[in-house]
Amino acid sequence: MSGQEDNQPGALDKEKESASGDKPRGAEGQSQSTAAQDSRDTAGEMDFLSKLMAKVAQITTTAAEEEKPKILESVSIEGIANYIKDGKAKNIIVMTGAGISTSAGIPDFRSPGTGLYSNLQKYNLPDPQAIFEIGFFKENPRPFFELSKELKLDTYKPTPCHYFIRMLNDKGMLLRNYTQNIDTLERLAGLPGSQLVEAHGSYHTGHCLECRKEYPLEWMKEEIAKDKIPSCTECEGIVKPDIVFFGESLPERFFKLVQQDFQKCDMLMIMGTSLAVQPFASLVNRVKDDCPRLLINKEKCGQTDPLMQFMGLGRGLDFDAPNNNRDVAYEGDCDDGCFKLAELLGWKDELKTLVSKEQGKLASEAKKKESTDKDQADKPKESSSL
Predict the structure, then answer these.
(1) Are 204 and 217 in contact (CB under 8 A)?
(2) Which of 140, 162, 207, 361 is most buried (most C-beta within 10 Å)?
(3) What kind and span of H or E run contains 239?
(4) CB proximity list for 239: less than 8 A, separation 6 or greater
(5) If we measure between CA atoms, which residue out of 266, 284, 338 comes closest to residue 90?
(6) Rounded to whole angstroms, how far apart are CA atoms 265 and 286?
């Protein structure tokens, strides 16, 4: 039996291969070939990336060396003010985000620790953004309405930044205010709805999700104050404020006006936004190349990414480019930035007077409403004692 086993085909060959140290053919040989191919593929990918980065560097260098026409007297907030005083800014677009409302006491969304998304644990959400997701809202709208009640949006007053935007409109310079905010403070500051594009919707109106019946803000506030989920008086469907939730399209008005406004724009002001949410953030690229752009924000944002530029996905803002001729960043509080610009324009006292007058008027109206509400609450008690 043993002799027959030793004479089996291939047995001796295997022993010789093992003794001589030669590597067998077959699976291991194929593995060696595959490894070599992978190595060539990796080398090819690295070569492609190297060429791509070289191309990006070339574009960046070329852009930096490119001669550009002078637009501002100086690339500074003073230069922006002089451009306005010279009468060159007749169609100003202002883009705004949560940062213009934080001084009113309304939290922004993303600031670590203080932002809205950092303080939603008590609602037991699958993730913080779920409270603004349309799918989650339809299944469980209560957390959203509890948050809405807690925010007490009707107690907040517009900030100096809101009133500065109104001043631009009063002086006939504002083409439009595109805002990401849903708090309606622009309207409360006296900005006409025609001059406003609420890109992410707002609490100003609401609609039944079933029959689309419209409801005013005051009605929704009363329902929310009673710890009720606003329900349609016609079909009992959920009444949702006209806020754009994740999973919904932006308002048709946004897309319609973007097409016409940004080609007319001769100065773009960006205030209190991180320019992190699309498609809003990409609007900075829609103005013409000779349109000055001013950012008033706590930090620079929305800056040019050479790789994105190479891929044709927009340029962004060019604050630190050697040949920057139009982009200015004021790093600081939005209200301070607006007062600084107003001072340079000779409008500071006018802005202070407007803020004081309008906020005083709102405080008086709030006090009167509180007194009326108290009287109405006391009426049943008086009737029952008769």
Answers:
(1) yes
(2) 162
(3) strand 239-243
(4) 206, 207, 208, 209, 213, 215, 220, 223, 230, 231, 232
(5) 266
(6) 9
Length of the chain: 386
The two structure tokens encoding residue 107: 């939290």
CB atoms closer than 10 angstroms to residue 357: 11
Distance between CA atoms of residues 196 and 253, nearest Å = 10
Please tell me the pTM assigned to this model. 0.77
Rounded distance between C-alpha atoms, residue 209 and residue 213, angstroms: 8
Q: Dihedral angle at the C-alpha atoms of 351, 357, 361, 364, nearest 10 degrees?
A: 130
Enumerate the H helices of the chain as residue ranges. Answer: 2-6, 11-20, 27-65, 77-85, 134-139, 142-151, 160-170, 185-188, 217-225, 252-264, 306-310, 334-345, 348-385
- Per-position pLDDT tens, the chain of length 386: 433 333 333 333 333 333 344 444 454 555 566 666 666 666 666 666 565 555 555 555 445 456 789 999 999 999 999 999 999 999 999 999 999 999 998 876 666 655 566 667 777 788 878 888 999 999 999 999 988 888 777 788 999 999 999 999 999 999 999 999 999 999 999 999 999 999 999 999 999 999 999 999 999 999 999 999 999 999 999 999 999 998 999 999 999 999 999 999 999 999 999 998 889 999 999 999 999 999 999 999 999 766 655 555 557 999 999 999 999 999 999 999 999 999 999 999 999 999 999 999 998 887 887 676 666 666 665 444 33
Sequence-separated (6 or more) residues with CB below 8 Å from residue 5: 11
Residues 348 and 342 sit within 8 Å (Cβ to Cβ)? yes
Rounded CA gap, 250 and 97, in Å? 16
In angstroms, the CA 161 to CA 102 distance is 11
DSSP 24: P
Task: Name the residues annotated as catalytic.
Answer: 200
CA 233 – CA 135 distance, rounded (Å) = 23
How far apart, in whole angstroms, are the C-alpha atoms of residue 299 and residue 303? Answer: 11
Query: Cα-atom radius of gyration of the chain, to the nearest Å?
Result: 31
Residue 224 has phi, psi (to 5 degrees) of -65, -40
